[in-house]
Design brief:
globular, 176 residues, mainly alpha
């Protein structure tokens, strides 16, 4: 694994950690998807309640698309095309989940009824049951996705250099 990819993994993991801090400090315990975070949240909230203030509302949307774009991009060698595919993919997934919160009953009605009985589906059902659509979250997704592209390009500047075939020498030459 290259130092570029290692750096990207560290950045992505650090962002996920920051996202966990947001959920521990700025979200009610019953609004977390993972049960163990909810339990820890009950202990942490009296100490650092509303740590992120107004940003805490949409910060998880930003962090999720940013962190997962950077982490996924780090799984393959650096390539601007790969980075764009990953950023667009995570933006689309997160946008669909955000839009689904606009009509949660319709989404829950579309899920097979047997799925509602599976413990593994509980976080998904809770997400749609308790989540609310917020245009600010859509903006946070767009900014998070663009920010991830900037960070990926900054950690792998070689992907911004196009190679142009040189007719005279028969080799590739770099052009900015």
């Amino acid at each position: 694994m290259t130092s570029i990819r290692r750096r990207q993994l560290i950045i992505g993991a650090a962002c996920l950690f920051a996202g966990a801090v947001v959920y521990l400090t700025d979200r009610p315990p019953d609004h977390t998807s993972l049960e163990f975070i909810g339990r820890i949240n009950r202990l942490a909230q009296p100490v650092a309640e509303n740590l992120f203030g107004a940003l805490g509302g949409s910060l998880p949307s930003f962090i999720h698309v940013f962190a997962f774009t950077v982490l996924t991009a780090a799984m393959r060698p650096p390539s601007l095309r790969w980075y764009m595919i990953v950023a667009a993919g995570w933006f689309t997934v997160d946008l669909l989940f955000e839009l689904a919160q606009r009509h949660p009953k319709a989404v829950l009605d579309c899920l097979p009824h047997r799925l509602h009985d599976l413990p593994a589906a509980a976080p998904l059902i809770a997400f749609f049951s308790r989540g609310t659509f917020d245009p600010a979250d859509v903006l946070a997704l767009a900014v998070g996705s663009a920010s991830a592209m900037i960070v990926l390009a900054a950690t792998a500047p070689s992907v911004l250099i196009r190679k142009k075939p040189s007719i005279a020498s028969g080799t590739d030459s770099e052009t900015p």
